Structures are given as C-alpha cells and as structure tokens.
Amino acid sequence: MDFAKLVQGIVDIHRQTRVQATKAVNISLTLRNWLIGAYIAEFELRGEDRATYGDALFGRLGHRLTEQNVSNCSKSRLYRYRDFYRFYPQIVATLPPLFSDRLSVLDISTNPAHPIKVATPSPLSGILLLERLSYSHFELLLEISDEWKRAFYEVECIKGNWSVRELKRQIASLYFERSGFSKRSGKLSKPENATAFQSDPVHVIRDPYIFEFLGLKPGEVLPESDLEAALIDRMRDFLLELGHGFCFEAKQKRLLIGDEHFFVDLVFYHRVLKCHVLVEIKVGAFSHEHLGQLNTYVSYYRAHEMGEGDQPPIGILLCTDKNHALVEYALAGMDNRLFVSKYQLELPQTEVLQRYLDEQRQALEGGK
Length: 368
Hints:
This protein is an alpha+beta fold. It folds into two domains: 208 residues, no CATH class; 140 residues, Trna Endonuclease, Chain: A, domain 1, CATH 3.40.1350. Helix content is 56%, strand content 12%. A five-stranded mixed beta sheet has the order 1-2-3-4-5, sandwiched between helices. α3 crosses α4 and α15 crosses α18. The two termini are 39 Å apart. About 7% of the residues have low confidence.
C-alpha cells in the first residue's frame, strides 16, 4: 500500500459509511411516518372515542403533537401519513421487531402473506421502496391519485435513481402521459434517465424533513459556502451595530411555500419602520433569479407574517464577487410612497452596504 492508496481507501470508507448513515436516517423517518399513519387509520376504524373527535381529529391531534415537539405533524401532514399507510401496505414486512410488536397491539398483521386490506398496493416490495426512495419521494407520489400512474413513477424513479427534484420535473412534464401515447414506451425511459438528476446521499440528508426529524438546525446542514456563512454572520452583526432600529429575529428562517421549503438568510424586525426586513446574501454576481426569490419571500411575509399595525416587509439582496458588490431592495408591489421615502432614510445607504461587503470579503479571503 502506497500513500495514494491509503488516501483513496479512507475516502472510500468515508463515502460508504456516509451512504449507510443516510439510508438509516431516511428509513427511520419513513417508518416513523408510516407508523403514525397506521395508528391514525386504526383509531379511525376502532378507536373507543373516535366519534368524539369526528372530522376534527386531525386538527386536534396535530395541535397536541406539536405541543409535544413531534416534528412535521400538522393537520395536512397527518392526512398524508394516513394515506402513506394505506397506499403502501407492503412496508409492514420491513418493520423491525420493536415496531412489529407495536403494531400487534393494534391487531395489525405483520405477516406478508396476510397483507393489510387497504388501497391497491404498489407492485414493488416494501424493502425495495424503503431502501431506494426517500420520504420526500413518497410525498410526491402520494399526490398522484391514479394507482397505475403512481406505480409507473415508482418504477421509473427507482430504475433511474431519480432525485426528488427529478421526480417532480418528470411528473410536471407529463412523462407518464407521454409514455402511454408512445408506441415505443419501453424505450422512452432511456433518454429521460440519461439526463436525469441523480439521487445523492448528501441531498437526502439536507432534506428539511430529515434534519427536523433529527432535531438539527437549518444552518447546520444547508449547503452554503464557508465564505457565505461568514458574510451572513458579519452582516447580522453590522446591521445590529448600526443602531437604526434593527432587532434580530432569525438566521436561515425556514418558509414552507406550497410543498417546498425555502430559507431566508437573515430576518430582522425594524422597530422604527415597524416592518420585517429580510436579507439575502449571494456570493457571486447579481442574477434576476436572486431578486425574484427575495420578492417571493417578501410577498410571503406580507401575506402571512404581518401583525396588526405592521408596515409591509422589505427585502435587501446583497450580491458580491471579488471586485464588486451590488445591493438591491425588494418591495413586492409596495405602493405607499410615503413609507418608501421613510425607509430610504432609516435603512443603511446602498453605498455603505456595498463598501462593507467588499471590505469583509477581502478580509475573509486574506486580502486577495
């Protein structure tokens, strides 16, 4: 063994163990959600006091579980877990003894020869589904009501090792419908998979469902560069030191918009302007996509986070490369001209922010 082989051997061990750890976490989360669905379905069927709760069961249960710090158990999620249990009964055969014993209390058979009598199951085995698909894959599949269409995407997803992003893209592109109308549908998957986004263990472990399940903070797992993370921290401290009314609320604030998770780098509340200020920092040149993303965050806050007496939120986009810094403000359709004029007086001037970004980047890069 020479030095190069020593390095490669350690790298291989690292990659293999990381894959195993990722699979273990994902399987645990998937089984958790399936078991939650099993408990709910059985309570609906045989619960002693089920009539007391009726249609309010999911709302009340979600509220109680949230109080107990059980993650991702909102009313809508609980419906999904119940459907997950019903649509994928074959997962029961993958349960370890500890969980099999729990199901026996509910009088649910874990014998594969006597499957749960629920919705028409997927043709794939429980172990294959569990090992090859993350729970985020299942979330997308559960939205498909047609069982044949859902089964089609299960097979194609596993065969092509699709990432969650790729599965979503294929569903949106009507891949199933196109293959059904093609006389050579069996050959359609080859070009699709040739350009597909492949699933990667790193992407799985950064899934918001995973790190919430593990109790991790977004900042501990989000794929931001060291430079970007350092700039975010320094910008937070800089704005607080200005003393213009900034009150720090959150770093990497998670927003659930539709079925997608987004993260705002910094969130402040400005006590003088009486509004939220959202700050996004991008290491690199300005892109209109960046401004569109920030506008989305500002619009979300305007619709869902404004309190009584609050003014509309403001977004600040900070972009920087080695030789230039750019500052853009996002107003999201704000039409109060008096307020716009006021915020221009209270917020840091563009030149101040640009100069600070340039200085900090140079300092962090060692004067390069």
